[in-house]
Amino acid sequence: MIKELRVDDRLIHGQIALTWPSQLGVNHIVVANDNASTDKTQQATLKMAVQGDVKVLIRSVDDTIKLMQNPKAKSVGMMVLVNCVADAKRLFAALGSENIERINIANVGRFDGIAKDQKTKINDTIYLTSADKEAAEKLLEQDANVVSQIIPSDRVIQFSSIMKEG
Length: 166
Hints:
Blueprint: E1 2-8, H1 14-18, H2 20-24, E2 28-32, H3 40-48, E3 55-59, H4 61-69, E4 78-82, H5 85-95, E5 103-107, E6 120-123, E7 126-128, H6 130-141, E8 146-148, E9 157-158, H7 159-165
Parallel strand pairs: 1-4, 1-5, 2-3, 2-4, 5-8
Antiparallel strand pairs: 6-7, 8-9
Helix pairs in contact: 4-5, 5-6
C-alpha cells in the first residue's frame, strides 16, 4: 500500500530520508523515475542518502506500477517518490485510491531545467508546467486525496485550494 505518493523534484533528500519514513510508519521508499532507474550513479546517490532500516528501491514508473500490483505489495506500507505531477497521475491512473492513500505535491518545478517563465507559480515550492498543471487538475477530478505538505510538522493543505489561489 502506498501511504504517500510524493511529488518532489529532488526525489530523496534530507527531509525525505530523515523525517518522512517514521512519520508515515514506512520502511520502504520506492523512487519511481525513468531516468534514475537507468542511472547507476544517481541510484547510488539516492540510496546513500537513506540511513537505517529503510529499504530503497529505484524503478521506472511502469515497473513501479507492476511492483504495486503484486499482492505482496499491498501488505507493505511504502512511500513512493516521483519528480513530476505527470508521473503521479500515471501511477494513480494505474493503481487508484485503493492503493494510494494520498498524493503530496510538495516540491516541484524548481530544479527541472525549464525556465520559470514557462510555468505557473502555485506557491514558493511548486511551479507547474502546463503538462503538470493538467495532470494535477486530472488528479483532482478523479477525487484523489491530493495535498501539499513540505515537512511533517507543516499544516496539510488540500491541493485544490492551492490551485485556486495559484
